[in-house]
Design brief:
By secondary structure, the protein is an alpha/beta fold. Helices cover 32% and strands 20% of the residues. The strands form 4 sheets. Strands 8-9-11-10-14-18-15-16 form an 8-stranded mixed sheet, sandwiched between helices. It is elongated, with a radius of gyration of 24 Å. The two termini are 36 Å apart.
Length: 515
């Protein structure tokens, strides 16, 4: 990953390949872009004409916009990269953290192939420094493990054009000896590194990431960071009665796994359980997906990747909260041993489920994991899953839905997501939709009414949450995998959706600010 440093050096005196500055849209009635704080030295070197020069080059300050120009005389960096912030500062003169995060990500990606860049964006406080740091690390991400041209002698990844990511970034205005600034940098590094690890997992082809391989990755990380890990293989799952996970994984030559990650802090007063859907490849099973709908189904384990990354990040940050992560891992394939439409599975909770559609498999593995998590009676459970296409139809490709059995908890999650820059939307659990899952032969069916399918899935999951336990469900089917071009700090492919929201929930819980 890109190496980050804090620097009190002036913009003109720091040796780098490029100097990154911010440009915002002009206030109402104004023309052209407005130079953001941090770029004063550059503007002064251009005799106060920087905004006009950028406007001549076509810059408007719009979000995601990149304008490159030669650095003025006397600067040790030969290139100035002006990146659009889009927004205007608030009444206190500060820029929104997400605007900074996105701008830093855009600039880092634009500087692919550079050895060092100095970021002179407006960093009014530690939070802004953290946002810029996070944006740089997330924006510089690339995945090249399967490309012959994607490796160099030093082992650094390269993009599709054979260029290595930005090697080093110095954040100007950051004070290396300031405790708050150092803490912000360390937090951003831990969260971004684990989020990028989740992206790597999502991007890994399913022939190399089956349930057993995923479990091995989790075991290695747990050992490195002092996390207790338990892996239930197919024999242990059968002995324990995990009918949902076994049913989904029964059609594959790669046996399922249930991974439990336990992070504990000696001063913790609360316990959170995170549950992730980990379908390492989803063919749909006997209810086979049609061509055009299965090419990206390696991403159906994004929920488990998010949970895994969040638990490791919590451990690295030393948060004063106990966090348990449950990764429900299986491969959903058609074969003679696969579960069939019409089969009835006995779940870990003892409840029976009539399988009407084998492509509604995520709720089956989650049902077992949710009940297992409930047995420990945590203060709250949050599950994360690429669960339904219906949620994508409802909210689009960049927003995840949030359902819960407690309105206040649902609101807290939406607020936490907004705070860290993840787009989410509160969704209801209408009681009238529950009747559609009534089965003549089992306790419940895994399908209900077609309209409102994302909400039906949430109601199904609620059936497997222990009584009296606060629970929320994040359907990240839309934002988990970006099939379009990169934007902000979001790359093409796996995005790491949900990681930052879960980490923030853990932080708020540790601080006593969440329930």
């Amino acid at each position: 990953m890109t190496a980050l440093t804090l620097s009190t050096a002036g913009a003109a005196g720091l040796r780098a390949d490029a100097l990154v500055i911010g440009v915002a849209k002009s206030p109402k009635g104004g023309k052209g872009p407005a130079v953001a704080p941090g770029a004063e030295a550059v503007d002064q070197a251009y005799d106060g004409r920087l905004a006009g020069l950028l406007e001549t080059l076509g810059a408007s300050g719009a979000e995601g916009e990149v304008t490159k120009l030669p650095a003025p005389a006397g600067f040790k960096a030969p290139l100035v990269v002006a990146v659009g912030l889009g927004t205007q500062p608030d009444k206190d003169g500060e820029f929104d953290a997400e605007a900074l995060r996105r701008a830093a990500g855009v600039a880092a990606r634009a500087l692919t192939g550079s050895k060092k860049a100095a970021f002179a964006l407006p960093v009014a406080d530690a939070a802004a420094i953290g946002a810029v740091a996070e944006g740089v690390l997330l924006g510089a991400y690339t995945f090249d493990a399967y490309k012959d041209s994607g490796r160099q002698a030093g082992g650094a990844a390269k993009d599709k054009n054979g260029k290595a990511p930005l090697a080093e970034a110095a954040i100007l205005g950051g004070k290396p000896r300031d405790k708050a600034h150092k803490a912000a940098l360390e937090r951003a590094t831990a969260v971004a590194e684990e989020l990028n690890r989740a992206r790597d997992l999502v991007n890994t082809p399913p022939n190399d990431l089956n349930p057993e391989a995923f479990a091995a990755v989790a075991q290695a990380a747990a050992k490195e960071h002092g996390i207790k890990v338990q892996v239930l293989d197919e024999k242990a799952l059968a002995k324990g009665g995990y009918g949902g996970i076994l049913g989904v994984g029964g059609g594959s030559a790669s046996a399922p796994r249930l991974v439990k990650l336990t992070y504990k802090h000696s001063k913790a007063k609360k316990h959170l359980a995170f549950v992730g859907k980990g379908i390492t490849y989803d063919s749909g099973g006997i209810s086979l997906k049609p061509a055009g709908h299965n090419e990206t189904m390696k991403c159906d384990m994004s929920g488990a990747a998010a949970v895994f990354a969040a638990v490791v990040a919590a451990a690295r940050l030393g948060l004063e909260v106990n966090v348990t992560g449950w990764l429900a891992l299986a491969e959903n394939m058609p074969s003679g041993s696969a579960v069939r439409p019409g089969d009835v599975l006995r779940m870990y909770s003892g409840k029976t489920v009539e399988v009407l559609n084998t492509d509604a498999e995520g709720r089956l593995v989650l049902g077992d994991a949710l009940w297992a998590a409930s047995e420990e009676k945590p203060d709250a459970i949050v599950d994360v899953a690429t669960l339904t296409g219906a949620m994508v139809l409802a909210l689009g490709n960049r927003t995840f839905g949030v359902m819960a059995n407690d309105d206040a908890f649902r609101s807290a999650i939406v607020e936490a997501a907004e705070e860290v820059g993840e787009e989410s939307w509160p969704m209801p659990l209408p009681e009238h939709l529950r009747k559609g899952m009534d089965s003549p032969v089992a306790d419940i069916a895994n399908m209900g009414e077609r309209m409102g399918g994302g909400l039906v899935a949430g109601l199904f999951l609620r059936e497997f949450v222990g009584e009296g336990i606060t629970w929320a469900h994040l359907d990240i089917a839309g934002p988990a995998f970006n099939e379009g071009g990169p934007f902000g700090y979001t790359p093409k492919g796996g995005t790491g959706s949900g990681v930052r929201t879960l980490v923030r929930l853990a932080e708020l819980t540790a601080a006593g600010d969440l329930g």
